Fold this protein.
Amino acid sequence: MNHAVIIPHYNDTVRLRRCLSALVKDGTEGADIVVVDNGSSEPLDGLKRDFPAVRFVSESGKGAALARNRGVKETQAQTLAFLDADCIPAPGWLGAIAAVVGRADIVGGAIDVFDETPAPRTGAQAFETVFAFNYRNYIEKKGFSVTANLVTSRDVFERVGPFINGVSEDEEWCRRARDRGFTIGLAEELRVAHPTRSDWPALEKKWRRLTREMHALHRDTHPGPSGRLRWFIRAALMPISVLAHLPKVIFSPKLGSTGERLRGAATLLRLRLLRACWMVKQAAGGRI
């Protein structure tokens, strides 16, 4: 096989089916597609029957990082592409992998967002429409790509090492890669779409997880009292950041009505205040 596509999955068979349907539409020649199931209770029999070109393996260790590591071990392909089960790859995505190989040691693709429910957007959907997956900023300014749409080589992966569970594994892994001198580039033609979170509970769950992971990564980078102080300062700045980001919501051309803008702005304020409270608790040694 020329390249492998590694897709971690846990109890999201409807979206996984949608992902695989888009992925195999143009054919799978030269691709080793590996779905790594993380102990789902939802049955996979129908998917296995309907997608014979896809290999399904299991990883008992919980966490997408461990599932991705397992996927790498399950294939011998020299090019590794990582895709999330809830993403929809654009037409030609598999073909684009070959086209972007060599552009950089690690290549991150474009990520669009879409709503799974009809208009009007909820506050969570409006917020994510404006802020979710700022992939250009991630790649070009912060130096990492999310693993929802990332291509690298087996050589780079083996030299950098596996993903680490419990932290922001994509950012941490790319940071290790940069420290070893590997380059990260952007490929707009390598494009997927990701659904927005449809309501507040889903958005809160996402950001609680991300805040835990970001804090774990911060502790590794800045241990001790000085690190806790840095995290507390970041927490204190979180409410202030609303002022800087509010115009992005109010004047966003992506939002279709005043109601969507107001709901998005209210969600921005609510989420930033909640994150500030979480981060203060973490700085004091508590868990969220």
The first helix runs from residue 13 to 24. The chain has a mean pLDDT of 97.
